[in-house]
Amino acid sequence: MDLVIKVLIGLLCLLFVVMGGQLMLTPEGAAAQFGVTAQGLVGLSTLRGDMGGMFLACVVMMVMGLVRGETVWFLAVAVLMGLIALGRAVGFAMDGFAQATFVPFAVELIIIALMVVAHRRLGGAS
Question: Domain for residue 48, yes or no?
Answer without folding.
Answer: yes
